């Protein structure tokens, strides 16, 4: 942030002639898009942490997973779990780094298109993982008694819903990032 000082020497009438009077700094206000983007990023990180906790401990303290396979044995797909883990961990790191760049107060990130691209990719990835979890856990039946409602099913549906909500937040953040890009580029 650059500070501009306006000083006036009252005896000679020339601006900037001396610093005998107090210098008055002029600060530039933060844009509404920046404030909105910071709030959305904080909310995305909080939801991401909750998703990671449910993902890891949602099955009665054991690994819940997102599912991803629709077969007779109801086994979870390792490929879907690898992609989901990558989305959860990768985007919490990315969003945390973006929050740090906003925290340092630089405006260099506003001139780059990378935030918009990553948010669009995040939108598709979060919605895909959430849709997979919702599809798997909606049709899930417990091992015994053919119960329709189980705690792991409820946790899986909550996991999928939070992923879709996070995808919507990434979409909103991509719009704000694009506004930053077009405004400052």
TrEMBL record:
The keyword Transmembrane helix applies. The chain crosses the membrane at residues 82-105, 117-137, 157-179. InterPro entries: Ssk. GO terms for cellular component: plasma membrane. It comes from the Eukaryota. The keyword Signal does not apply. GO terms for biological process: septate junction assembly. Keywords: Membrane, Transmembrane, Transmembrane helix. PANTHER family: PROTEIN SNAKESKIN (PTHR36692). This is MARVEL domain-containing protein. It comes from Anopheles stephensi (Indo-Pakistan malaria mosquito).
